[in-house]
Specification:
247 residues; 7 strands; binds 2-acetamido-2-deoxy-beta-D-glucopyranose; transmembrane; signal
């Protein structure tokens, strides 16, 4: 009974610590170029002209979280540290931080350059525990929620609101690591298709050979017949005539 007020106080304090400027939430891009979502990636608008009045060396991070991690999310946890590792998401950590870049890369002038971010595009570091801030493929269809967090050194100085829920496509990516069983069946389907095609080609070849053999029989006999005969003769001699030859 005495614990409850204490807990509430701690919660209030935790919220107090989060009292940094909170800016408009990230959006999926409007551009359909390259697809807004795939089975393991999604494309966000860069947070251009969102963070203002911050030092030039402020680093903007993207936080990707499961919705259940959002209510209780702490900005104080170090990017890439325990609780923020891509490789452990979503099993033992509910959020990770990635795509860190200085605020200078998100200028207000977006007349040139690419102004989107593809989340989940980096496959090379997906299993590399030494790169916990990897922008690796998302492990499932979601939903996810994201926000941008500005850190000055290790101190949070501004953030955006959390995005709406982001759902990915359910189609299985061919090279997806976590989807073992579905990857398997896709492989089986491909293999079956290839084998069917090979079998069809073989069959067609066989039929063509037979047809060619019967139609061109007159012409080919000069070449094939002596050969067949000589082979038969050799075999016959070798296998069956040996006892006779010894006699
Ligand atoms: C982002 O979403 C807000 C509403 O949530 C909308 O007003 C705004 O135009 C969107 N921006 C882009 C770039 O889609
Ligand atoms: C919220 O965070 C606190 C401390 O970080 C933790 O003890 C608690 O279990 C969390 N609650 C939920 C619902 O995750
Ligand atoms: C998460 O757990 C599942 C089931 O236990 C396992 O198959 C999967 O490999 C794990 N993923 C990661 C990234 O550890
Ligand atoms: C992003 O953070 C990682 C880990 O802290 C660091 O090694 C890397 O240099 C940073 N990249 C940029 C562009 O700031």
């Amino acid at each position: 009974a005495t614990m409850l007020p204490l807990l509430l106080l701690l919660l209030a304090m935790a919220h107090g610590l989060d009292a940094i400027p909170t800016l408009r939430k990230p959006n999926l891009t409007d551009s359909l170029l390259g697809g807004r979502t795939t089975a393991s990636t999604f494309v966000l608008e860069q947070p251009r002209c969102v963070f203002t009045n911050l030092r030039d060396d402020t680093v903007i991070w993207l936080v990707v979280a499961l919705p259940e991690a959002v209510a209780n999310f702490s900005n104080e946890v170090k990017p890439g540290g325990p609780g923020r590792e891509f490789q452990k998401f979503p099993n033992s950590t509910l959020a990770y931080m990635t795509l860190n870049t200085t605020i200078l890369n998100y200028p207000c002038d977006n007349s040139r350059d690419i102004t989107v971010l593809r989340v989940g595009s980096e496959t090379s570091c997906a299993k590399d525990a030494s790169r916990p801030t990897c922008n690796g493929p998302l492990p499932g269809p979601g939903p996810y929620q994201v926000k941008f967090l500005a850190l000055d050194g290790s101190e949070p100085v501004a953030q955006t609101e959390w995005s709406n829920l982001i759902f990915l496509r359910k189609a299985q990516p061919p090279s997806s690591i976590p989807l073992m069983t579905s990857g398997h069946s896709a492989g089986m389907i491909a293999l079956t298709a290839i084998l069917s095609i090979l079998f069809a080609i073989l069959l067609a070849g066989l039929v063509a050979t037979l047809l060619w053999g019967s139609e061109a029989g007159g012409v080919s006999s000069t070449f094939s017949k002596p050969e067949v005969v000589s082979v038969r003769r050799y075999n016959t001699h070798h296998v069956y005539d040996q006892p006779a030859a010894r006699l």
